[in-house]
Amino acid sequence: MHHTGSPGSSHRHEPGAxxxxxxxxxREIDPLRMAVVHPCDELSLTGALEAKSQGLIEPVLVGxxxxxxxxxxxxxxxxxxxxxxxVPHSHAAAARAVELARTRKVSALMKGALHTDELMAAVVDxxxxxxxxxxxxxxxxxxxxxxxxxxxxxxxxxxxEPDLETxxxxxxxxxxxxxxxxxxxxxxxxxxxxxxxxxxxxxxxxAAALCKMADRGQITGCIIDGPLAFDNAISRxxxxxxxxxxxxxxxxxxxxxxxxxxxxxxxxxxxxxxxxEAAGIVLGARVPxxxxxxxxxxxxxxxxxxxxxxxxxxxxxxA
Length: 319
Description:
Elements: H1 17-24, E1 32-37, H2 42-53, E2 57-63, H3 65-74, E3 83-86, H4 90-102, E4 108-111, H5 116-124, E5 137-143, E6 151-154, H6 164-180, E7 187-192, H7 202-215, E8 223-229, H8 230-234, H9 236-241, E9 254-256, H10 260-274, E10 277-283, E11 289-290, H11 298-316
Parallel strand pairs: 1-2, 1-4, 2-3, 4-11, 6-9, 7-8, 7-9
Antiparallel strand pairs: 5-6, 5-10
Helix pairs in contact: 1-11, 2-11, 4-5, 6-11
């Protein structure tokens, strides 16, 4: 099990080491005011309070007050000095948090104990949501112990069967995040099952089109190649065996998957079979959105908050 980024070397680092560096990179940045939507269970509330104690965020808890306080008691945590916005239920919590972001009273959102669909419905609402001219997409930032650098996977959480136009935004959103993480010219691999353009497999045609869009300035700030199969994207040996000459093959920073199912399976395989930690964030809305999962460790929740802090600073800083 040693897929590596360079031929003949085996790489393994301590799980989570990169996330600790990510959190460290936010030390000199002011905490981000973040609305935590419906933090009515121990997990989501503890994650938010831990992020506050690490100096990452200034949480604004949005949910039914009695439930939030019960969760705090169960977690044996104090809510002293923490802003709590009382609303009747999770639906109202999503709407109120989005309103706080629209009026710039908070600079980011974090999902608590409610379904992603419920939060995102309020976010994408045409009249009252947080839409921009860019399509929203999710990026996982994986710390894979057997890969020599962070691996960004997109989109495994929001866009189910993205068309070419949506994939363009998915790529550009991921590139923006890479820039926020100080990756000046990320290498983007557009994944398929094969590395040649084969019209019966639509993702190969989309991959070729995305590469040409980058040539014409419709996608900027990255080196992009595709279609590439997963092995060629992350293993230089595999690419060399197939005689693929590419600046991206074997050294990808960003993996763009054909659809949500492929992305979801890929990310979860890396988490459950390769011991990867997964942080994640939604881009393309007016503010960064942290979509935590119930299975996330505290470290990956902190890392997701750190992504929001770094991204918000990047988007705020004039180019």
